[in-house]
Design brief:
The chain has helices at 27-43, 135-148, 153-156, 166-172, and strands spanning 47-49, 59-64, 77-89, 94-99, 107-114, 116-122, 128-134, 163-165. It has 176 residues and is α+β, with helices and mostly antiparallel strands. It has a single domain (12-172), classed as Peptide deformylase (Peptide Deformylase). β4 and β5 (107-114) form a beta hairpin. It is globular, with a radius of gyration of 16 Å. Bound molecules: nickel (II) ion. Residues 101-103, 143, 147 line the site of nickel (II) ion (NI).
């Protein structure tokens, strides 16, 4: 397994719509998934999209740690990949989500996201999966899906006062 270099905001690969994955079970994609999981774990992230490791393909890895689960409808989930995902908002209710991104180290911001989304795609074994996501899962799926369309979370922010360094928010609290 290999730790991959993470592209940081400003790199053009993060601004480009990614291409569909043609062969999810190919050794190169399976190795990429393994390496992305290792890279995400090493960096302490909860999601990582292929463009963030300089691969402009439509897949990401993600999980819901027990500490981020928001209740029975948003249970902890083990790490998996979602390949060629499709996300569809359910209703128009929005929630404020505090997000960080491994491509924007040291910072976090409050981002309006759909409270519920329907997702579909392939898991890492190439099996079709679909479901309704709420809570933290809905948040991480929307953040990672945006990476596949070349969108970083600051673009989604509506109140830029609520954008700051982790250290300052930990010290002084999150601006509201
Ligand atoms: Ni990100």
């Amino acid at each position: 397994m290999t730790l991959l270099k993470i592209a940081r905001m400003g790199h053009p690969v993060l601004l480009r719509p990614a291409d569909p994955v043609a062969l999810p079970l190919s050794p190169d994609i399976q190795t990429l998934i393994d390496d992305m999981i290792e890279t995400m774990d090493d960096a302490g992230g909860v999601g990582l999209a292929a463009p963030q490791v300089h691969v402009s393909k439509r897949l990401f890895v993600y999980f819901v740690p027990p500490s981020r689960s928001t209740g029975p409808e948003d249970p902890p989930r083990p790490v998996d990949a979602l390949i060629n995902p499709v996300l569809t908002p359910v209703g128009d209710a929005m929630v404020d989500c505090t997000e960080g991104c491994l491509s924007i180290p040291g910072l976090r911001g409050v981002v309006p996201r759909f409270a519920q989304v329907r997702y579909a795609g392939l898991d890492r074994s190439g099996t079709p999966v679909e479901g309704l996501a709420t809570g933290f899962l809905a948040n991480v799926l929307q953040h990672e899906y945006d990476h596949l369309d070349g969108i970083l979370y600051p673009t989604r922010m509506t109140d830029h006062r609520r954008f700051g360094f982790n250290e300052e928010w930990l010290r002084h609290g999150e601006p509201s």
